[in-house]
Amino acid sequence: MIRSTFAGFTMAQQALSANQRAIDVAGQNLSNINTPGYTRQRLDLASISPVGASFSSSVYDNKVGQGVMMKGISQIRDPFLDIQYRNQIAKVGTADAEDQILERLGEIFDETDSAAVREAFNNVITQLKNMANPQDGGASSTDALVRSSFEVLINAIHEKANAVDALEEEMIKKMTDSVIPNINTCLNEIKNLNEEIKNSQILGNPALELQDERNKLLDDLATYLPIEVSYRTDTSGGEPIDLLDVTFRDSAGTKHTLISDTKIGEFHFDGTGGIPVSLEVTDALNPGGGASDITDLIQNGVLKGNIDMLNKAEIFDGTDTKGIGYYRGMFDAFVNKLATVMNDLNGDALFEKSDGSGADQPFTASNIKVSEGWMNGTVSIKKSDGAVGGTGPSTEYKNVQLMINALISDKQVFTVKRPDGADVTVFTGTIQNCYDNIQNVQAIERKASASILKNHLTVLNQISDSRDAVSGVNMDEEVMDLMRYHQSYNAASRLMTTMDEMLDKLINDTGVVGR
């Protein structure tokens, strides 16, 4: 069977078109080599099968394909690496959020390069020792000097308490004004891109650049919480349309749909009542079904890091995270023990609460103050132990020495009542050591947090490098492709020339003999 006379021209023309388009794709890749989030594109080619049998064909026909077909332009992505990257970036989000807050707490409690509570506490001890000095009868330090040193200490305590409160308020404001709006905006932008991609694909455009924008937003969303991304194809309209779903599975195993094609859920944060804060999410598939409380159900991400540091206080509430509440609780325990021990040893109250709370309520770093009696002189430090309910002869200055010992050498048990009513011991040691322990714990937690963050970032960078190796533009590879397609284009041109020469011979020279 003789093939179609011009079939070879069609084959050559298809080869020219395919190689020209492949060069265009390589040029697009090279143009976007520095574009953030750009995914390398490729031209998908397929061989055109030979035509089927006909009445004129025979078993001796050797059929050849009819050239090359351009199936479309696609992106080179590895879905498994995308999953790994987004899972890991959620872990980075958790560690980074916790590390930032621990760094701020370090600025509050670390007194390595500043004079604050520790120096003021040491000055109190110095004044008490001067008062108890038997060599000069305590004349080197008067009651007024001791009271003044305690006022300085309490002012330093108030400053730190205010700083902790300010940090807490700042974090709540950040969640309210920045984090949650950013998440909801991200969801809305992904929804809008879904609509644009769908409309573009209906017209036969793959919308690859829009998909790059969407993937970048999905990576951003994954920093806040762990997400699962799935794709499905809708062919009901004739042209295949890619639809995207984004879900979040909480620690209880419940799946919440954040995005389903052009439907989205929404996050709601409530910090108006202070601590504890709460977080809810509405489901994209059931917006009228009410919001689900996921405050304690997020497994990773910036949301988990921030909420854990705001709501959790470890031993003070039976949770597993030393959040802001832990450091406030330890600081309050230090202040409460300091005030109660001094009041008990003195008999008459040297300290009282500024908020008017009852005697059954503990002192806190925010409400402690020098008592009115001590301020107006009706109360003073009782120097002898006989003055405090003693029946024996008074020993001058011994009570002051008992105060000194209670502050720096006597082991104390620091007990607090948890919200569930349980009494728990949060520290055992001297009052002085209790404050040192706050600083030490913060330093250890910050070091551990920084190490965890560094490790997570190392893994993330490794995954990112692997993903870039697949999806990123490699200049050497693209230049090699340009050379390869250029040579293929030249070969296709040569095929066209050869076919032209063959036809010229057939048309102009065949059958001329005997004319």
TrEMBL record:
Residue intervals of the Flagellar basal-body/hook protein C-terminal domain: 471-508
Flagellar basal body rod protein N-terminal domain residues: 12-39
Keyword Secreted: yes
BP terms from Gene Ontology: bacterial-type flagellum assembly
Keyword Nucleotide-binding among UniProt keywords: no
Pfam families: Flg_bb_rod, Flg_bbr_C, FlgK_D1
GO cellular component: bacterial-type flagellum hook; extracellular region
Keyword annotations: Bacterial flagellum, Cell projection, Cilium, Coiled coil, Flagellum, Secreted
A molecular function GO annotation: structural molecule activity
Chief subcellular location: other
InterPro entries reported for this sequence: Flag_bb_rod_N, Flg_bb/hook_C_dom, FlgK, FlgK_helical
Coiled coil regions in record: 150-203
Localization per Swiss-Prot or TrEMBL: Bacterial flagellum; Secreted
Domain (Flagellar hook-associated protein FlgK helical): residue spans on this chain: 103-348
Family, as annotated: Belongs to the flagella basal body rod proteins family.
Descriptive protein name: Flagellar hook-associated protein 1
UniProt organism field: [Clostridium] hylemonae DSM 15053
